[in-house]
Amino acid sequence: MTDGVAPGLTTTPCRWGDGVPVPRARARSSPHPARAAAAGATGVGWLLFPPVAAVVDIGGLWLLYRTGLLSAVHHRPVLGALLDLHMLAAGLLFSFAVCLVDPVRRRWGLPLRAATLLLAGAAHAVLAKSLYATGPPGTAFAASDLRLGAQIMYYGGDAVEAALACVLAVQWYTVTGRRRARAAARSGGGHPRQASGQGGGELLRPGQLGP
């Protein structure tokens, strides 16, 4: 029974979180900026729209575990391998759509990406809790195996969600810092160094204020 539930349930969070190395792989596969622009100009670019990527990833998990799909591919190694490949690609797509570490033609705002991550994490957690109570249709896993897999899926998903949230927090902090630096420069009437008293002229000592 363990062989049936473990490959699907226990590795799902890992597949979802494997999107962190995507920027490096993307940079190696398409280093030229024109290729990134071409990708964004086609319909494939819409797959990077965070809600669409979330539906492909989390919706695929719901389709797998809440329909007869898992039981249909359980004894078919080729179909199972293709399904594993799809789930891995969907996890990479979702992670890249949320983080957007590499420059792309269309960058979606932080609020949209954060909201998508929150809703996707909630849907993932609900799925894991439902599997803790009831196994996938057409399967007959032992209750202990099913609950163990559901627990790993639940807490593993939380860990991955927290990691992606940290990436978004760093991006928000960077953007906010730049805005504050520009605002300080404008309020100082010139270059940020002049606004902070560095390079804006010689500072007078108390004895030089006047006769």
What does this structure look like?
The chain has helices at 2-9, 12-17, 22-29, 33-41, 50-65, 69-73, 77-99, 110-133, 143-187, 192-195. It is built from 10 helices and no strands. The protein has one domain (2-186).
Count of separate DSSP helical elements: 10
| Low-pLDDT ranges | 1-32, 34-41, 192-204
Number of strands: 0
The proportion of residues forming helix, as a percent range, comes to: over 70%
Distance between the termini: 94 Å
Over all CA atoms, what is the radius of gyration? Answer: 24 Å
SS strand fraction = under 5%
What is the string of SSEs from the N terminus onward? HHHHHHHHHH
Secondary structural class: mainly alpha
Shape designation: elongated
Indicate the mean pLDDT.
Answer: 76
Biggest sheet: strands, sense, closure?
none
Number of domains: 1
Secondary structure: elements and pairs:
Elements: H1 2-9, H2 12-17, H3 22-29, H4 33-41, H5 50-65, H6 69-73, H7 77-99, H8 110-133, H9 143-187, H10 192-195
Helix pairs in contact: 1-9, 5-7, 5-8, 8-9
